[in-house]
């Protein structure tokens, strides 16, 4: 095996083709379209309350569970299963199902317009909807212990085949509770105290076990307070400085490979938003609106 690898001969194009086939990049919809994500990447979507973070997860989920095409109809999906861990406990499955139905209907409408002279035998919308929803797996966690347990269960139940997307809505949902555990007096000095740092060390360890044997990426939202939000706007020549007061443990911070900031453009209406890549740092800022059909590029780029 090793000798065959050493004696192997391939050019750069062949090498890239092989690597991208084994570890494909995922090109996600707006506003995450600027930076493709690869296997084991961890994207943190950070922003204040009501900044469309969960809506972005919904749109990405719809894009993932839709098929690429059926019976000649282009749906433009990735046809990948999605694992959604809801730590905020406020996820609305109705929003996901409505967006999915609208995407299917729109794909059929566009196909009819394109082939108006040809009779089209569409894939039954009900069957397609059920096929897509079967790719969406949802778990609600009410504290860090349930979150950690869910990760352990996933490690045992998931197969190593296929590309998966793991979504975590509000990774910092239990921060205050776990921080409170750290301040409690330790009952047994010989036993390690349960607290924020200890809990996230275990969480990151389980997530690494989940990612290593599988072609999987992680998308996690994180909410910042109004006070922290103001520091995001601090700009200096040549880049951003003092972006925000980070409250997550260093274990999680070092685990994150990509980070994007989203925030409302209008504090009153909260229908239009901006998105800016912090990691990697990009000079481009995208603007978008949220409507019934999903997320639309405000600048039309």
UniProtKB/TrEMBL annotation:
Gene3D superfamilies, per the entry: P-loop containing nucleotide triphosphate hydrolases
Any one biological process term the GO annotation gives: double-strand break repair via homologous recombination
InterPro entries registered for this protein in UniProt: P-loop_NTPase, XRCC2
Coiled coil: none
A GO-annotated cellular component: Rad51B-Rad51C-Rad51D-XRCC2 complex
Top-level taxon of origin: Eukaryota
PANTHER family named in the record: DNA REPAIR PROTEIN XRCC2
Identification of the protein by name: RecA family profile 1 domain-containing protein
Species of the source: Deinandra increscens subsp. villosa
């Amino acid at each position: 095996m090793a000798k065959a690898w050493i004696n192997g001969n391939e050019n750069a194009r062949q090498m890239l083709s092989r690597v991208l086939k084994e570890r494909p990049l995922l090109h996600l919809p707006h506003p995450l379209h600027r930076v493709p994500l690869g296997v084991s990447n961890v994207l943190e979507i950070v922003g204040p309350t009501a900044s469309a973070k969960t809506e972005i997860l919904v749109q990405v989920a719809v894009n993932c569970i839709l098929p690429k095409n059926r019976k000649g109809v282009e749906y433009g999906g990735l046809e990948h299963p999605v694992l959604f861990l809801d730590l905020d406990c406020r996820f609305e499955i109705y929003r996901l199902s409505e967006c999915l139905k609208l995407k299917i209907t729109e794909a059929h409408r566009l196909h009819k317009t394109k082939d108006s002279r040809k009779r089209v035998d569409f894939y039954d919308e009900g069957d397609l909807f059920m096929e897509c929803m079967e790719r969406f797996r949802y778990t609600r966690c009410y504290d860090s212990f349930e979150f950690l347990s869910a990760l352990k269960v996933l490690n045992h139940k998931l197969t190593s085949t296929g590309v998966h997307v793991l979504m975590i809505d509000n990774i910092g949902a239990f921060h205050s509770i776990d921080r409170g555990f750290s301040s409690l007096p330790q009952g047994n000095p010989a036993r390690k105290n349960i607290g924020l740092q200890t809990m996230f060390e275990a969480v990151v360890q389980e997530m690494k076990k989940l990612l290593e044997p599988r072609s999987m990426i992680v998308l996690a939202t994180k909410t910042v307070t109004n006070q922290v939000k103001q520091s995001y706007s601090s700009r200096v020549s040549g880049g951003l400085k003092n972006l925000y007061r980070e409250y997550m443990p260093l274990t999680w911070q070092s685990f994150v490979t990509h980070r994007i900031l989203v925030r409302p453009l209008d504090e009153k209406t909260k229908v239009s938003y901006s998105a800016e890549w912090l990691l990697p740092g990009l000079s481009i800022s995208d603007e978008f609106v949220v409507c019934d059909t999903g997320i639309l590029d405000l600048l039309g780029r």
